Amino acid sequence: MFGRDIRRSLLYVVPALIILCTIISTYRLSPNEIRINRWMQPADGKTDFSQGKESVGLTHEEEAEAPLSFGKPGAAGDAPKSYPTGNKSAPLDIQTSHQEIFSTSTSDGKYFSIDFAGKHNGMNPNIIPHPTLENTWIVAAQMVRGESEQTVYFTELVCNAAFRGNVLRCLQPPNALPVVPTKGGKCEGDLAYFSSNIGPHDARVVYGPDTPYIIYGSNSQFTCFGQFIQDFRELIDWQGREVGSQSFLEGTEMQRPLPWNAIEKNWFPFWDPFGNMYIHYDVSPKRAFAQINADGTVGLDLSIGTEAEDAKCIATYYPPILNSLESIHQASNSLKITMCKRTDAICIANESNTFIFTIWQHKTFYNFHGVYEPYLMLFQEHAPFAMHAVSKKPLWIHGRQQQMDKDTSDMFYVTSIAWKRPGVTYHGYLDDELFIGFGIEDRESGAIDVTAEELMSGLGLCTEA
Fold it and tell me: Disordered: where is this region (predicted)?
């Protein structure tokens, strides 16, 4: 009888304790954490891959990444505030909270969609000018799998595309890039399932000074999941393969200065004025980059030479990270820009006006929905490659929608940047136009063409940090 009474008491006591703990946990949340949970604030973050928080085989909706912070709308380095009203947040004032950019070619200034003209769709696109065909671009993107499709195979689609109205459309259904799968065997524990991956992940097709390359994720011989590079011309019909660099004719795994993360993603190459190639590994919590050799080996981490000065710029312009639902990480490849107009007779590229730039992102993952806010970063093109400038506010691509019924906004995931005009490979000027390519909600692809001058208009200088 006594035992029965105890069991009956537990039926009441245990639920009461659970409710009490939940109330206490909620009460202890800081005002910022409660506020941020109501609206996905802009910022971008780097996943802690060493803890297995972001999976290569997952969509962005399924990722879990790290944190940032907010302050007064429009303040340098701060993400915009939200203003809760009842159970919903007030819409963001984009003109105050972001730097909005507009398309130079669409009739309404909005971004344009990419139509793959076949039964397969693509996301996370890359766009580069076709080397010989006029008004034609090469598009490469990760093939989107159906919601019910379970497979270990990953495919990168490629096609020649041209504008049809406000859409960039493949001229023929895309083909699969013949990227050779790699063997790994370094994935253990919770990451063991990565070993079954076959094919490239999240590729970046980029132009160097004289050669196009593809960078992609695949099974690694050094860690669980690594980054590979190959001359893009070896994978498609490209005339003039004998011109330019003859390195990386086969898929080559790139290395990095120790330590390795279990999952490596989003590395990008950059070049100094002498044509030497470097690989940039991280933008947060501090930068990491090294010179790479033709066999994929690398030298020392060169970021130690700029770490102290870079830290001041990062502290001033990077959005703060609030909790484990926010993070900052690399996103796009790099391009070189001279900060004057090509059409100006007095515009001459030199060390004082020419820089490397890239886009990184601050991610939030509230209400089970990822939102990425892109920021621009410029750094010197010559050693020691110190940071030069960072966006004061995140970019807002015109046409991206706020979803007030869900206290969120469209997930645009920036993947690539490229000069739009044929013949302009790596080095452009303020009056040149460029493409910014991005995935949309892990389902489709979009891009926007903007002038470099407009893109660079919202920068904060590191010398003012």
Answer: 67-91
